[in-house]
């Protein structure tokens, strides 16, 4: 099925974001592992896998629309220097991804590509209700109990 070129371009831009988020989570996960924060390592590695699954859905849709997935492009990564900065950088990335998803959902609506819109709505729900929510909780925990107490619970 020949897709709308604007939608395909927007999906490729989303793909770049998902792959970049996957890479950032991957690096952060291994930093957590190196520092002995096994709980954070496990969760953030899971987030990297989730981003990979999101990227796979985008690749599949781009191919279905007879486009060419751009799997080489990446955005600049924001690798943190400590746990709190890493969590905040990841959350900021998720906010940007959610905003971009909303924009592309609106484009799909305007171009009457309702199936792509539905796929993106699922990704948005996962981003908001899982990724962003978990990261926001971690930052609130740090604010409530202090960084050192928080870190003790993540070993």
From TrEMBL:
Q: What is its EC number?
A: 1.16.3.1
- What domain of life? Bacteria
Against Pfam families, the record matches this protein to: Ferritin
Which NCBIfam families does the protein's record reference? bfr
Name recorded for this polypeptide: Bacterioferritin
Q: Where is the Ferritin-like diiron domain?
A: 1-146
Annotated source species:
Shewanella electrodiphila
Which family, according to the similarity comment? Answer: Belongs to the bacterioferritin family.
Matching CDD domains: Bacterioferritin (cd00907)
Q: What does this protein do?
A: Iron-storage protein, whose ferroxidase center binds Fe(2+), oxidizes it using dioxygen to Fe(3+), and participates in the subsequent Fe(3+) oxide mineral core formation within the central cavity of the BFR protein shell.
Q: Which UniProt keywords apply?
A: Heme, Ion transport, Iron, Iron storage, Iron transport, Metal-binding, Oxidoreductase, Transport
Q: Which reaction does it catalyse?
A: 4 Fe(2+) + O2 + 4 H(+) = 4 Fe(3+) + 2 H2O; Fe(2+)(in) = Fe(2+)(out)
């Amino acid at each position: 099925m020949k897709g709308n070129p604007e939608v395909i371009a927007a999906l490729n831009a989303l793909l770049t974001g998902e792959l970049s988020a996957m890479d950032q989570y991957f690096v952060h996960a291994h930093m957590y592992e190196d520092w002995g924060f096994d709980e954070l390592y496990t969760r953030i590695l899971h987030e990297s896998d989730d981003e990979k699954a999101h990227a796979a859905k985008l690749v599949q849709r781009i191919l279905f629309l007879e486009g060419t997935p751009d799997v080489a492009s990446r955005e600049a990564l924001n690798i943190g220097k400590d746990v709190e900065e890493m969590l905040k950088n990841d959350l900021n990335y998720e906010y940007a991804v959610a905003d971009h998803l909303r924009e592309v959902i609106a484009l799909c609506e305007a171009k009457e590509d309702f199936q792509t819109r539905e796929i993106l709505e699922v990704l948005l729900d996962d981003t908001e209700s899982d990724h962003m929510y978990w990261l926001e909780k971690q930052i609130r925990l740090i604010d409530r109990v202090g960084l050192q107490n928080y870190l003790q619970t993540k070993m």
